[in-house]
Amino acid sequence: MQETTTINNNFKSEEYFINMGPQHPATHGVLRLLLTIDGEIIKKVEPDLGYIHRSIEKMCERDSYQQIVHLTDRMDYLSSHINNEAVCLTVENALQLEIPERVKVVRTIIGELTRIASHCLWWGVMGMDVGALTTYFYGFRDREMINDIFEETCGARLTMNYNVPGGLMWDIHPNFVNRVKAFVKHFKTKIPEYDRLLTGNVIFQKRTKGVGVLSKEDAISFGASGPVGRGSGYSCDVRKYHPYSALDKVTFKESLQTAGDTFARYQVRIQEMWQSLSIVEQLIDNIPEGEHRVKTNAVIKLPKGEFYQKVETARGELGVYVISTGTKNPYRLKFRSPGFSNLSLLNHIAVGGKIGDLVATMATLDLVIPDIDR
Amino acid sequence: MSIIEMVLIALVYLGIFSVAGLFLVLLERRVAAWFQLRIGPNRVGFQGLLQTMADALKLVSKELTGTEKADKFLYNLAPYFVIITALMALGVIPFTKDFQAFDINIGIFFLIAISSIGVIGILLGGWASNNKFALIGAMRSGVQTISYELSVGLSLLTMILLTRSLQLSEIVEVQKNGWLIVQGHIPAIIAFMVFMIAGTAETNRAPFDMVEAESELGAGFHTEYSGMKFAYFFLAEFINMFLIAAIATTVFFGAWLSPFGITESIPWLGVFWFLLKTLILVFLMMWFRWTFPRLRVDQLLTLEWKYLLPINLVNIVIMAFVVWQNLIIQF
User: Fold this and answer.
1) How many angstroms separate the CA of residue A225 from the nearest CA in chain B?
2) Which residues of B touch A18 (CB under 8 A)?
3) Alpha carbon separation from A237 to A92, A229, A233 (Å, rounded)
4) Which backbone phi and psi does A46 adopt, to 5 degrees?
């Protein structure tokens, strides 16, 4: 800037760089954002990853298929059950195992409960990110009930490890059905409470409507999936298009919004909670009797070839791609995590907004950093 | 009044209100817990009454750390600006007829003037601590306070039309015929609402906590402060909240006057009534904080310049008309 001095030069605004994270309350974990800002307006967002990289994919090449399941808990820890399920389904499909109906139904119920739990946490944090601190505790109250059910079922609350290739680790607890029913009844009265507290709030709507708009075309080209894609009108629910487990036996609506802004993504998740509740309700009364697990070999060897399975986690499409050479370890295992694609569009939709918009937008992308940074 | 007497009064005020500020912090934590399905601090002392005392002791005993490249002088000066202005303003608040340190004839003006000095402390703190997040917070604070001061001033001015005096004791005197919010009816209620909104913004509390916007700026302007210097900022926020509530009580709800004069014969009960009314308003502000999401910085300015200010200006005209036509409701 070697211009000759003019009076205007004194008032010239200048872009500056600011480092948001890796220890920042809004990044929910160790995500670092390199922001270029002009005053309050965001000019560029560069996510910087690698702070929680554990090379899970490489570790998978070392482990047997039973062990890989445990690693997936540590990716997207908020939908750990669904991650487990993805790996188990891949292995089961490759081995062409006949899975008992009971297992399928229980997996689906717990998967949907996981989705609700994840969305509860997201809802709480979403409120917190736009400044309504109370939502956090409301979200956690209801998530706690689900976690208690999980704890009783499999002993763990977060990293569940309930799935094994071939079925479930244990049968469900005798209390399971009653507790899930109690939860469904409880939670049906709580989602309207969520709406009263946050959704209908004028300030919240002003903060979120028209902010971080993602068009349908961009959603597709960035590979957005899950509520992020569906908020832009991109119908991409894996549960609908490639039903797995017992999802082909239930009827549910894919929640779609067309606006593509932060509020649309918010609404998609709220509707998904309703849909998940309805799926749980349809299945909980008729869990078929039967085995909870089919016997597999102690050492699972996948046939030679490539296998792919995708599932819908709370964040979007999780793909598991396995290349097997016929040994007990995969030759290569790749996870297609929803968070990574969803994060990649952050720069696209946050530029031009304010710092507050960035935080609100990031909240609706619902990033779980260990999922992005495996 | 001799100098010694003044110093003694000052010390008593300092003591009372530092402790009162601590109890407000406790109150906020309990109220927040109540809104948030929690229990809140209940271990230290009876029902956690001594919790914030313990916190204050901890903060006093903590090491004062700061950034190396900070502008040391301004950095150290900033907290005092904030806390001193907050405490100074308390001097003119009429707790009862006799419990008022200074009854100056420009009481309201003094309050508005003093409460706007505090922002200098915030600006200094944010600027001097050599931290970008703190700087953004401080700049937001400047913008916010300058804007909302207009609404605070104008809404109080609306009420001055009724009282015909800036002196706080006379403002209370006028209300013996009915609290001003009743006397001034419609314009007074509008003025009260505007005052509460702008007052909340003045104290930098949610939903206007742009200054420290936790999820955006970490801790905002006091990011680099620790120990007692941080405590000053923290305490000042609560004393300022008390002040806004106290001004609202004085100007709209008859200060220490009891409802319908039920305890007129026992003057010292005025303190009770004053504190009761103030605490109800404080509770209202806490209610705001734990319910509403935060506004964005441009929406904050839109609210002030496009809505509150025009409403206020029209409201003054309405009030002038009410006073002119003598449409005041008096008992």
Assistant:
1) 26
2) 132-133
3) 22, 9, 11
4) -120, 110
Residue A299 clears pLDDT 70, i.e. is over it = yes
Residues of B in contact with A357 (CB under 8 A): 296
Q: What is the pTM of this model?
A: 0.88
Nearest to B215 among A26, A40, A203 (CB): A26
Q: Which of A24, A38, A129, A130 to mutate to test the interface with B (most CBs of B within 10 A)?
A: A130
A5: pLDDT strictly greater than 60: no
Strands (E), chain A: 16-20, 32-38, 41-48, 163-164, 167-168, 305-312, 317-324, 330-336
Q: Are B294 and B213 spatial neighbours (Cβ–Cβ below 8 Å)?
A: yes
- The domain A53-372 having CATH identifier 3.40.50.1970: the answer here is no
CA distances to A70, A255, B65 from A114, rounded to whole Å, are 16, 17, 44
At B226, the amino acid letter reads S
The pLDDT tens digits for B161-173 are 888 888 888 888 8
d(CA B82, CA B78): 7
Are A32 and A21 spatial neighbours (Cβ–Cβ below 8 Å)? yes
Q: Is A335 on the interface with B (CB under 8 A)?
A: no
Tokens of B177: 């015929």
Helix (H, G, I), strand (E, B) or coil at B330: coil
DSSP codes of every residue in A26-95? GGSSS-EEEEEEETTEEEEEEEE--TT---HHHHHHHS-HHHHHHHHTTTSGGGHHHHHHHHHHHHHHHH
pLDDT digits (tens, 9 = 90+) for A85-112: 899 999 988 888 888 888 889 989 999 9
Size of interface A-B (CB pairs under 8 A): 81
Report the pLDDT averaged over residues B303-330: 87
SS3 A312: strand
pLDDT > 60? residue A4: no
Structure tokens at A294: 């089919």
pLDDT tens readout for residues B27-65? 888 888 888 888 888 888 888 888 888 888 888 888 877
With contacts defined as CB-CB under 8 Å, which chain A residues touch B206? 131, 133
Q: For residue B224, is pLDDT > 60?
A: yes
Residue B34: the pLDDT is: 87
d(CA A208, CA A261): 7
Report the alpha-carbon distance of residue A173 to residue A196 in Å, rounded: 35
Q: Give the per-residue pLDDT at B314.
A: 92
Do A314 and A119 touch, CB atoms closer than 8 A?
A: yes
Instruction: Using alpha carbons only, give the angle B16, B138, B278 rounded to the nearest 5 degrees.
Output: 30
Residue A269 has pLDDT above 70, yes or no: yes
User: CB neighbours of B245 closer than 8 A, spacing ≥ 6?
Assistant: B199, B278, B279, B281, B282, B284, B285
B-chain residue closest to A125, CA distance: B215
**Alpha carbons within 13 A on the beta-carbon side of A88:** 28
Strand A305-312 to strand A163-164: parallel, antiparallel, or no bridges (unpaired)?
unpaired
- pLDDT exceeds 70 at position A9: no
User: Which bin fits B68, alpha (ψ -120 to 50), beta or left (φ > 0)?
Assistant: alpha
Q: How far apart are CA A311 and CA B266, in angstroms?
A: 74
Question: Domain locations in chain A?
Answer: 53-372
Interface probe with A: pick from B215, B291, B292, B299, most Cβ of A within 10 Å: B215
